[in-house]
Design a protein that fits this description.
The protein is α+β, with helices and mostly antiparallel strands. The protein is 31% helix and 20% strand. A 5-stranded mixed β-barrel has the order 1-4-3-2-5. The chain starts with 6 loop residues before the first helix and ends in a 13-residue tail after the last helix. Residues 1-7 have low confidence and may be disordered.
Length: 162
Amino acid sequence: MCEKMNFKTIREYIELIVGTPRRFSPEQALLAHGREWKASIGTPAWLVRGPKKNCFGNARGYALTRDDVLYVEGYALDRQLGIPLAHAWLIDEFGTVIDPTWDDPEENSYFGIAFKKSFVSEYAGATEGEPFLHPVVMRRNYGSQDDFKRGVETSCDPGCAL
């Protein structure tokens, strides 16, 4: 027969679960590897913006086909809305934002993680269109900080070696 647990013990257990993440999370990844990115003024001649609300697909498409950009994922602050939104964009060899979705990147703020091309190639199909910084995607594909860290591009301070 089970012994009864008192309320204090259950409460302590729940607080322990809430206070101790069991898996590496998107928020932990952003805090450990994210940085602020500056938007460019103007757009490259080759850029054709993709559909709204498809920023992950728009940015991945260019990142997988061009050698002069890297894929970045995180949050962007749309100044018109005034709230940070999960977003994806590109950076050039100078670490400057090229946004293949939003029309006014110079009006917005960007904070995110640049990913190595090999990481983007390896996981682009496995995420089923979801962002790399999605809890389920992370858990299925690169659930530990060490697994995740191997995909982070670190050569972008202040410029990138693409």
